[in-house]
Every structure is written in C-alpha cells, then in structure tokens.
Amino acid sequence: MADNSHVIYLEEIGGVKPSREADILIGLLLIAVVILGIGGNAAAVVYFWKKRQQSLPSLLYTIIGIIDIITAVVTILVIPSIFSYRKPMLLESFTLCGIMGLVFNNTQRLSMFMVMMISVTRTIAMFRPFYEIKRVNVILACIAFEAFFFLLDVSFLATGSLQIVYYGPGNMCGVIPGGNVSIWRWNIYLIFNLAWLLLGSVVVFISFIMSLKTVSDRQKSSVGQNSSEKKFQNVSITITLFTALFLLCNLPLLVLQTSANVIYFTGANDYLAGNAGYSWYGLVIAHVFLTSFNAGANPCLYLYRMQKFRRWLADWVFHRRFRRASARVGDIGSTVTTNGKAGIKTEVSGMDSSAY
Q: pLDDT at position 331, please?
C-alpha cells in the first residue's frame, strides 16, 4: 500500500498549471540524457579504470563516471512523474522517495567535490609540475567528505530534524524541517550545505579562471613545443572544458538554492512558493534536468577531446564484431586447412596495431 503522507502535490500555482507540451519535452530529453548517462559513463568507467594507475585524473574520472551513472539511474524515478502532471507515481513510495532524495543530493555534493579535486590538482600541476600529489590522500579526502555529509543527513533524519517530502511542482524528493526540529538545528544544517556549495563553487571557479589563463598563455607560445608539452596542453584544455560544463550545469541550482534560503530567512518564502515559473520549471530544470544533462554530457566531452578514448571505444564496438565474424570464418577454415586459420589471426592482429 502506498504511503503518500510525504507527498506535496499541487495541480496549479497562482492559477497556473504546468504546460503539458513543456513537460513532454523535458521528459523526452531526460530519457535521452539518462540513456547517454548510463551507457556513455559505463564505457568511460571501464576505460579510465584500466588507466587509473597511470595518472591521478584517470582515477578521478573513474569516480566521476560512477557518480554520473548513479545520477542517471536515480533520475529514472522522476521521469514517470513528468509525463503524469507531476503526480508522484513511483515516488509515492516513501522508501523510493527517500532513496531518491538522499542519493541525488549526495551525488550532487560529491560531484562538485570531485570536480574541485580535478580542477585543483590540474592547477597545481600547471604551476608546480614537479609537485607530487599522493593519490591515497585524494581518495581519503573523498571518503571523508562523503562520510561527513552522509552521516549529517542520516543523523538529522534519525532525530526527526529532517523530513523527506515529494514536492510535486519541483518534481523532486528532498528534505524540509521536521516537526521536532528547532530553528537553530535547521540553520546548522543549511549552513553546512550552503557553505560547502559556495566554497566548492568559488574554488572550482577560481581554478577554472587560472587554468583558462594558463592555457591561453601557453597556446600563444605553442610554437616549438615538444610532444609531452602538447599532451600536457591538451589535458589541461580538456579539464578546463570539463570544469566549464560543470559550472554551466550547476550554477543555476546554486543560485536557486541560495536565493530560496535567503528568501526563507527573510520571511518572503510565500512569494517564492507562489511564483508559478519558479515552482513549475525553475526547480525541475536546475535541480533535475541540468544535473542529469551534466551526467550525460560528460562522456560526450570525453569522446570529443580524448583521441585514445575514441579509438578504444571504436575498437571495442567494431573490432568485437569483427572478432566474432572472424571466429565463425575460422571455425569453417579449420576444417579445411591450418594456414587459413592462421591467416585470419594475422588479419585481426594487423587491425589491432593499426587502430593505435
């Protein structure tokens, strides 16, 4: 039996209902980015996992790929609601709603932390190329960060300070102050989250600007660069674009969350809740769509910028089919002559070497 005690469902706000056509468009786009986010990031995780020992960015990209897959999978729970006039549908289950809210919020926070790690480590590599960044320290920092915020959420939920709700207009599950929460405890929770969002965004933005300037300066003096310098330059450009994509997709949510809490503290939250444009589409686009779009766009960026990733993916897709066809021909040839079978193996080996 469904538990809808956590559901806040509104058919209209200020006399305005959500646009059916806009919802269908958002739903179709979400389906596309979910498919791309799961399939593209699965391939990226396999690729970067094999190279995780070779460079720190490969390890960080592996973790980000896993986070993006989780984000895309959780987004699946939202899609039926988009096509059903923002009714909770799957999220009418309190358990699924709680999972969606906690996982989605934690992946957003962890994504920003990982992007910050990539930006900062690349900036350090630009200005101090011989400085060694120990990967074990990076991994421990990631674990400590996620553990802190996860325990923060769980402790506040366990004491009744937070309550899971499905907010229909925003088409999302999240948390609101629980019935047993004092105003100071709720403020502590908000301060921790907003302080991290602001700090993380500022650090990522500063690293982005510094990287952009360094890349621009090196491009002006690119004449006579050797192969290792060009490779370093290409990696820096890729990480700069990766950071820019993250900022474009996540800054709108930061602005909305910050403004919402400022309005909450000033007592003007009734105006925000009654604003149809903000309620019906501001949260859906900033919180759900752009976050999922970022997860689906990352593998496209890898494909565009990383030649070895393109070659690996093409080899895995097309060469695998070729090997299956060759195996069938080899089975037939083996009944006739051994030389025929050897010839097929030579052709496959030649294809491998030419691909790289």
A: 46
84 and 225, same structural domain? yes
> Would you say 113 and 200 are in contact if contact means Cβ atoms under 8 Å apart?
yes
The total of structural domains in the chain comes to 2
> What DSSP letter does each residue of 215-226 carry, written as one string?
HHHHHHT-TT--
Residues 168 and 237 in one domain: yes
Q: Are strands 172-177 and 162-167 parallel, antiparallel or unpaired?
A: antiparallel
Q: Kindly state the tokens that stand for 330.
A: 């080899």
User: Torsion angle of alpha carbons 211, 214, 220, 221, nearest 10°?
Assistant: -130
State whether 137 and 44 are in the same domain.
yes
Any residues with CB less than 8 A from the CB of 101 and at least 6 apart, and which? Answer: 164, 172, 173, 174, 175
Q: Does any domain span residue 1?
A: no
Cα 84 from Cα 88, distance rounded (Å):
8
Count of beta carbons in the 10 Å neighbourhood of residue 267: 8
Question: Looking at residue 320, what is its pLDDT?
Answer: 62
Same domain, 294 and 190: yes
* Mean pLDDT, rounded, of the chain: 78
> Any idea what DSSP says for residue 91?
G
Q: What residues make up the domain containing 340? A: 308-356
- Tell me how far apart the alpha carbons of residues 104 and 98 are, in angstroms, rounded to a whole number: 10
Range among 2-16, 33-47, 193-207, 226-240 with highest mean pLDDT value: 33-47
Write the CB contacts of 84 (distance below 8 Å, at least 6 apart in sequence): none
pLDDT digit string, tens, across residues 143-197: 998 899 888 888 888 888 888 888 887 788 888 777 767 777 777 887 788 777 7
Query: Per-residue DSSP letters for 122-163?
Result: HHHHHH-TTPPPPHHHHHHHHHHHHHHHHHHHHHHHHTTSEE
pTM of the model: 0.79
